[in-house]
Amino acid sequence: MTNNASQIRVAIIGSGPSGFYAADHLLKQRDPEIHVDMYERLPTPFGLVRGGVAPDHEKIKSVTKLYSRIASHERFRFYGNIEFGKDLSRFDLSAHYRGIIYAVGAQTDRKLGIPGEDLRNSFAATEFVGWYNGHPDYHDYDFDLTGIKRVAVIGVGNVAMDVARILARTPDELYGTDIANYALDSIRRSEVEEIYILGRRGPAQAAFTNPEIKELGEMADADIIVDCDDASLDELSATHLKKARDRSAIRNVKILQSYVDRGLTGKSRRIIMRFLVSPSAIIGVDKVAALRIVKNELYLDEHGNLRPRATDQTETIPVDMIFRSVGYRGVPLPDVPFYDRWGTIPNDRGRVLTKHEGKVRLTGNYVVGWIKRGPSGIIGTNKPDAIETAERFLEDLQTGDVLQPRDSREEAILELARSRQPSFISFDEWKILDEIELQRGADMGRSRVKFTTVEEMLEALGKVTEMAGAGK
Q1: What is the CA radius of gyration of the chain?
Q2: Is residue 116 part of a domain?
Q3: Residue span of the structural domain in which 459 resides
Q4: Which residue of 44, 266, 310, 396 has the smallest Cβ count within 10 Å?
Q5: 161 in the same domain as 27
Q6: What does the pLDDT look like over 313-361, one tens digit per residue?
Q7: Residues 123 and 94 in one domain
Q8: What angle, 0 to 180 degrees and rounded to 10, lies between the N-to-C axes of helices 17-27 and 64-71?
Q9: pTM value?
Q10: Domain holding 142: CATH number?
């Protein structure tokens, strides 16, 4: 591989699925050949596949084998432990790359906007998910489940299902997974007996997938309770479902209805599913004591969409802990346009725009994944999304409507990275961490025992001195 100033290089910010799919498409191009450098603020790659997929879903995590193959390409470089906006700026990257692709996902949660939301024991699902997955950002959180009898999970997407399922799992079910050690210890001490899952619309509009809802009915030590009224479809939903012919939604309803007559079997925990209810207030003095909910009804809006609206029926449920799972949203990146209402980077089919309402492009800047389209779809949804964006870059490359770097040599980029973050992590160094984690797991009869802090990772690689010298 030659190094010269005319090399075509693209920087990808973020190392989740959308970033790897974009890298794969660019690396497959033969004329011209493109070099891809991927930047990740953590030492570890793979984004939410590592830090968001539930530990009891090992099969889903196996997609990282594909990403590792992509990373092995001779024209691919990984720069871990380098944070965009802190260690490197958009201006820095513009001096070395023809294109910059933002693949940072949606990193925070949406608020409920109700009284009591900030009481102790009221959490975002993102915090709990990151904590039990050993994400360094959530290592210091403390989810003490002793004394917690009832939990409410607000939302009916796959993340809500994950939270409820992990709360309902036995320690034996989770021991063989890569759940963080401290989370496994907390689950061993858990006193949770009831888990409410609350959806603001009906069962036909639930966002969870068929496998996720089916799994809740197969728990080793948790019964699932679905009332007949909650599983029944109102007239509008029945009509809409018939017209839409949404096989996944039809299957979801059938699975839910199969739970109605199941009854209790003597298991120690109960998962209670409720639909057409919305939280209106979280009640408590210094911590969560109850949740007030309002009954909803569905109506057709002016666009023909089914929407929920509150009735005058309310109910109060005693709960000790609440997890809100009503959607993710992106956060702004330094010196990158952002549309706050949607929590996304404004774009036209992946080309970054200077503002949401306009048509002016930020030349050479592109976006993929949730930060492009909002938090929707599953891991595989990111592939066509990423290809669409990569194709826009290739089109712009043909017309010359891309960044014009002054120095695209690999040596220049390495020099910049070392000067800003001496403890950056290469993909080969990540593979060393990976092997250590796998071996630690094998020694305990588990799939993996993760490093849960950046300091641990750097120490394992002998980079602590470098980190201290960099003042980080």
Answers
A1: 24
A2: yes
A3: 8-107+330-469
A4: 266
A5: no
A6: 999 999 999 999 998 889 999 999 999 999 999 999 999 999 988 889 9
A7: no
A8: 40
A9: 0.93
A10: 3.50.50.60
Q: Is 380 left (phi over 0), alpha (psi -120 to 50) or beta?
A: alpha
Tens of pLDDT along 100-151? 999 999 888 889 999 999 999 999 999 999 999 999 999 999 999 999 999 9
For 245-253, the CB contacts below 8 A with 24+ separation are 248/209, 248/210, 249/204, 249/205, 249/206, 251/210, 252/203, 252/204, 252/206, 252/208, 252/210, 252/213, 253/203, 253/204
Tally of domains within the chain? 2
Q: Do both 60 and 182 map to the same domain? A: no
Q: Which of 328, 349, 367 is the last residue of a domain?
A: 328
Instruction: Let me know if residue 3 belongs to a domain.
Output: no
Does 334 reside within a domain? yes
Closest CA to 204 of 243, 229, 231, 227: 231
Dig out the tokens for 371 from the structure: 């930060």
What would the 3-class secondary structure string for the chain be?
A: CCCCCCCEEEEEECCCHHHHHHHHHHHCCCCCCEEEEEEECCCCCCCHHHHCCCCCCHHHHCCHHHHHHHHCCCCEEEEECCCECCCECHHHHHCCCCEEEECCCCCEECCCCCCCCCCECEEEHHHHHHHHCCCHHHCCCCCCCCCCCEEEEECCCHHHHHHHHHHHCCHHHHHCCCCCHHHHHHHHCCCCCEEEEECCCCHHHCCCCHHHHHHHCCCCCEEEEECHHHHCCCHHHHHHHHHHCCHHHHHHHHHHHHCCCCCCCCCCEEEEEECCEEEEEEECCCECCEEEEEEEEEEECCCCCEEEEEEEEEEEEECCEEEECCCEECCCCCCCCCECCCCECCEECCEEECCCCCCCEEEEEEECCHHHHCCCCCHHHHHHHHHHHHHHHHHHHHHCCCCCCCCCCHHHHHHHHHHHCCCCECHHHHHHHHHHHHHHHHHHCCCCCCCCCHHHHHHHCCCHHHHHHCCC
Instruction: Choose one of 328, 344, 369: the last residue of a domain.
Output: 328
Q: What is the C-alpha separation between 346 and 123, in angstroms, rounded?
A: 29
A 10 A CB-CB count for 120 gives 11
Phi/psi class of residue 38: alpha, beta or left (left: φ > 0; alpha: ψ in -120 to 50)? Answer: beta
pLDDT over threshold 80, residue 470:
no
CATH number at residue 339: 3.40.50.720
Residues 79 and 125 occupy one common structural domain: no
